[in-house]
Amino acid sequence: MDGDPLSALVVAAHPDDEILGAGIRLSRRPQGRVHILHVTDGSPQDMHEARALGIRTRQEYASIRRKELLEATGMLKIPAGNCLQFPLRDKEAYLNLPALVVYLELVIRTLQPALVLASAYEGGHPDHDAVAFAVSVVAKRTNSFEHWEFPLYHSGANGEMVTGRFIGDESDSDEVVIFSAEERALKRRLLVCFRTQAEILSNFTLERECFRRAPRYDFSEPPHAGPLLYERWGWGISGTVWREFAAEALTAVECFPGVGN
């Protein structure tokens, strides 16, 4: 991906995913040519973490997360108008996969990015997996862009949260961005913008970012053996149910005409 002067679209589930997975990679691109699309507003219905921070409503939490995002993207000189959002609730993207595919395809046909960068299918968060699904489907339907991906987090063999590495062989990356000292400091400043997410962000490295061309996923199969991380966390969402929604969405999408055709 280095040196590519063409436009890029980052598809992220939540405000902060794009910085976690690709903040330094984005800092190395011509920023006016980067767009970011968030699949959710980052605010869940359950509001457990938000209420612990003294935030009272879902709308207030979504607004705060948007402000955090624009603070970070402002540091990267990505225009606010380049930061798009599909207003689904956090943890519910998998419930809206057909609509997500239609909206994403419309955005991609409008922006015509040469590169789409998104989270991997890894069972860490159902929204991350919904992004991987939607981008994979649109890539197949349009055949108009390169689909690359970055890891966020998944479950280790003992249930621990593994961050910033693809499932499987640690060398399973096509590109690894190693940070300079200045870039480590920049990444730290970018992540500090997301004050509401400080606890989970503390688990991530400030040393590198990993990328690969997205594989051809079989979304009828789990991303790895054993319980998924969001199952271990007791969110009431199972991988089996997630895959049932994905299968239904694939059937529905086959009936869709190409957006804009």
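[next item in queue]
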Amino acid sequence: MLVAIDGPAGAGKSTVARAVAGDLGFTYLDSGAMYRCVALLSIASPQEQPAKLARGARIELGDAPPGRPPRALLNGRDVTEEIRVPEVSEAASRVAADPGVREALVAKQRELIAGGDWVAEGRDIGTVVAPDAALKVFLTADAHERARRRAEQMGADAGTVLAEQALRDARDSTREHGPLRPAPGAVTLDTTDLGVEEVVERIAALARAHPART
């Protein structure tokens, strides 16, 4: 069974998806980490086409220690911390708009989730990567609340994060390939006034009640 969780930055996708996967005993896939890996390569080799870098990248994602992001290996090197800095986050949004990059990484993601039970999160899991996912969830939240969460997470100024977030939201939702939007049939869940545990409980309950689990 595949649970697809999409939504904008700051909606709680990563935290929630990891917890849901742990609750259900599923494997967690952080698709955003894959785009961050390509962004890191692009920053290091700006003369190379991002799509070429994406096709050649060997990306391995591991388990997430409690309270930490999942381990990411890029061409055999641990880049878990490197791909989480603001510069890489911004670059990831840019390379994600490249259709060649998306084509390469969507293929890698589909290969990963082809078998077994998964919770996959990103911005186009339910719309592009796995439109036939058993359960599709779109997490959202008030823009100011999303900015507050990310600022707290990164130790940054909330106003600065809000401005950068607005640009990223616009880019993600208007790009030609895989724009950010709820998938047909997705359950939309506003997390503005909900705690992580409550969101996790709701999604896990939906997954357990789904016919695919019977």
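[queue empty]
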